[in-house]
Amino acid sequence: MGRVFFNTRKNVQDVDGAHTMAAADSGKVFTLSSTAGACEITLLPAADLVKGWNCKLIVKEDTPTGVITVAAGSAIIDLVGKDSGGDVAVSTAGTAVSNILIGTATKQGDYINLICDGSTYYAEYLSSTDNSITTS
């Protein structure tokens, strides 16, 4: 009997500049850079998504050229994270935010996981540099 191979590859998409998420982006891994300067990743309204929509955002450009803003449009992101200093100061502690800011001090490989339950985005991040991922 021949070998059976399973397709376990992640769907990876490079993003270098502004990008608006789509419902079909669920499950994707986005590698982010900002070679043209500051840019925005726009999330869809949570109510427009099915429960379980998710994606991963990975910093591809070591020390991005400009801040990359992950924008929800309203205060619907609950975030927990950890950075190299062991700080969790950016964690939202039950107070939702509108934006996650990926700063110019982030390093290649820092990441954010996002998941939506149809009304709120939940996010977790890991960063190799202190206070390089913040919120607004």
Characterization of the model:
- With 136 residues, the chain is mainly β.
- It is 0% helix and 38% strand.
- It has no helices and 11 strands.
- β9 and β10 form a beta hairpin.
- It is globular.
- The protein starts with 11 loop residues before the first strand and ends with a strand.
| Mean pLDDT over all positions | 90
- List the total number of helices: 0
Walk across the major sheet and give the strand order: 1-3-5-9-10-7
Which sequence of SSEs, written as H and E, runs from N to C? EEEEEEEEEEE
> What's the end-to-end separation, in Å?
57 Å
Class from helix and strand fractions:
mainly beta
How many strands, which pairing sense, and closed or not: the largest β-sheet?
A: 6 strands, mixed
Poorly predicted regions are none
Bulk shape: globular
Strand content is 35-45%
Helix content: under 10%
Q: What is the CA-atom radius of gyration, in angstroms?
A: 15 Å
Q: What is the assembly state of the chains in this entry?
A: single chain
Q: Give the total of beta strands.
A: 11
